[in-house]
Fold:
Amino acid sequence: MDTILTPPSEEMLLKAADIIRAGGLVGFPTETVYGLGGDATNESAVRAIFHAKGRPADNPLIVHVADAEKLPMLCRVTQTAERLISAFWPGPLTLLMQKTPLVPDVTTAGLASVAVRCPAHPIARRLIALSGTFIAAPSANLSGRPSPTTAAHVYADMKGRIPMILDGGACQVGVESTVCDLTGDVPVILRPGAVTRDMIASEVGDCLVAGSVMRPLREGESAPSPGMKHRHYAPKGKLTIVRGEKKRVIDTISRLYDQADNACILCGESRIKCYRNRICRILGDTPEEAENHLFTLLREMDDRGIAHIFAEGFAESDDSLAVMNRMARAAAFDIIDV
Ligand code: TXA
Ligand code: MG
Structure:
C-alpha cells in the first residue's frame, strides 16, 4: 500500500474523511501526539487499527469526538464528567465511562467502559466532524515504540500500512492525554498527562492517582489500565534516570557516562556546559519542556544506535508526573536518586 504524507488542506481532509467512512485508517495530528484513526463504530476498521500497530487485542482504544454533544451515544455521561468536560475540553483529558451498545466490544477490548476524548487540535476536530462518525485512535506508533510527535515519526512506523497521514507539524504537548477513570466514586488517574491531578481535583474536589503510575506492577497486582501492563516507550539502548541535587546529578551522570561506551546524556539546556565535552541532547529545564522533547529524543537515540542513555530526572510533583511516568517506563524503572 502506498502511503500519502500530505499537508491537511481542505481537499485532503475531505479525502481523509472519505477513507475513515469507508473503514480505512488515517494518521492525524492532535495536540498531544499523532493518532491512528479509524471509525470507532466499525468493527473491521477497529481490527485494522490493532493490526497496523501490532497492538495486543486486550488494550482498548480511545474514542475521539468533535464536541461533547453526541457523547450520550457513546457512554453514560456522569455529573463529574460534565464538570470536567466544561473545564478541560477540548484538550488533553480522556474520560472513562460506562459504554453504550453503539461502541463495539473490539474498541474497548471487551471492557464495559469506554475512553472518550475531544482533542483540541483543529485538524483533528475537523477530521472527526467531516467523517460524521466517532474516531477510535491510539497513538500512531508501532506497538512498543515511542508515541509519534511529528508526521515523520508516523511515516517511519506506518509507511506501507495505512493510506494517508495528515501532516500538521509538531505536536504542542508531546505526551499522551491524561486518562481519568470516572466509573468509581472518586476520579482516578490511570495515565498522567498535561491535565494534572491538582487541576482535576480543583474542579471536582477530589482525584486519586493509580499506585502503579510511578512503580512497576507488583506480583499478582492487575494493571489499572490494560495499556500499563504492556512494555512501553522502550528505546533500544539502556536508559538510566538520575535525579536529586543538581551537582550530585551532574557528577553521577558524568561518571556513568565515562564508564560507558556509545553513550548520550539528556539534560536541561542550562546544564549542558556542566557536562563539558560529553555528548548531550536537550531534554529540558522544566517538565513541560521535557514532555515536548522526550519522544523525539528516544527515537533519535534509536536511529543513532546509542547504547547507554543517561537522563536527568525531575523531582516528583504534580507537574512532573506525566513526563516522569513516561521516562520511568522507558527506563524500566532504573532510577538513581542522589
Ligand atoms: O493523547 C492521547 O490520548 C492519544 C491521542 C491520539 O489522542 N491517544 C493515545 O491512545 O495515547 P493509546 O491507545 O496509545 O493509549 C490509550 C490508553 C491505553 O493505555 C489504554 O489501555 C487506555 O488508554 N484505555 C483505553 N480505554 C480504556 C478503558 N476502557 N479502560 C481502561 N483503560 C483504557
Ligand atoms: Mg499509545
Observations:
- Residues 30, 32-33, 35, 59-62, 94, 96, 108, 111, 113-115, 117, 119, 137-139, 176-177, 179, 190-191, 225-227 surround threonylcarbamoyladenylate (ligand 1) (CB under 6 Å).
- The chain is about 30% helix and 20% strand.
- Residues 39 and 133 are 7 Å apart (CA to CA).
- The chain has a mean pLDDT of 96.
